[in-house]
Design goal:
It contains ten helices and eight strands. Helices cover about 40% and strands about 15% of the residues. Strand 7, helix 9 and strand 8 form a beta-alpha-beta unit. It has about 220 residues and is α/β, with parallel strands linked by helices. Bound molecules: 2-phosphoglycolic acid (PGA). The site of 2-phosphoglycolic acid has 13 residues, from strand 8.
Length: about 220
């Protein structure tokens, strides 16, 4: 079971203290680009928060798969809702980033999820179908179901809502599905107990060493 911490544009915790606190617990951390090398050197399983599809080129502000691999980075998050909402990333772009990263040898966490308006309008399944349709099964691909209304809001999906969405995503694409959206040490156990919840993508709570280690421990005991 994968528990991944997305530090977003926060500097994040001390890498050596985190490494020591995690011990043998499986984990992934996705720090800002400026701390990737340090996290790799500290022995953390390290992913980037995005990756471009080209090996190199005139793409200001982007990072290529070979550049991440050269640092010892093992994977990347792709299509996070903040990328889609604030930086105009599309399903097609997410598909290209995902395919290129997988082809290069990176692991990928591809994010999907509906907004509050879409859920209220009864469009959740249509949105998920559209977002998942551009992805192809791969042994190094996992999907993260992150309802946008639950990200950073403290509003977690109930375990039932998460289970239903995860089962739906898996009916479309046979890959592990992580849950993301206000996962905390005190709600992780009931979310991760759902049969189709295969891990967690943790934002805010991953910035706290004790909280993140607690969630990783819950994940590893499942
Ligand atoms: P959150 O973020 O845990 O702070 O809600 C989750 C995410 O965006 O991956």
């Amino acid at each position: 079971m994968t528990v991944a911490g997305n530090w977003k544009m926060y500097d994040g915790p001390d890498s050596h203290a985190l490494r020591a606190a995690l011990g043998d617990l499986p984990h992934v951390v996705a720090p800002p680009y400026t701390r990737l090398r340090e996290c790799v050197d500290a022995g953390l399983t390290t992913y980037a928060q995005n990756v471009h599809w080209a090996d190199e080129g005139a793409f200001t502000g982007e990072i290529a798969p070979p550049m991440l691999l050269a640092l010892g980075v093992e994977g990347a998050i792709v299509g996070h809702s903040e990328r889609r909402q604030y930086f105009g990333e599309t399903d097609e772009g997410v598909a290209r980033r995902t395919a290129a990263a997988l082809a290069a040898g990176l692991n990928v966490i591809a994010c999907v999820g509906e907004t509050e308006e879409q859920r209220e309008a009864g469009e959740t399944e249509d949105v998920l179908r559209r977002q998942v349709a551009v992805l192809e099964r791969h042994e190094r691909l996992v999907v993260a179901y992150e309802p946008v209304w639950a990200i950073g809001t403290g509003k977690t999906a109930t375990p039932e809502i998460a289970q239903e969405a995860h089962a739906f995503v898996k009916s479309l694409l046979d890959v592990p599905v992580l849950y993301g959206g206000s996962v905390k040490p005190d709600n992780a156990a009931e979310l991760l107990a759902q049969p189709d919840v295969d891990g967690a993508l943790v934002g805010g709570a991953s910035l706290d060493i004790d909280g993140f280690v607690t969630i990783c421990r819950i994940g590893s005991s499942r």
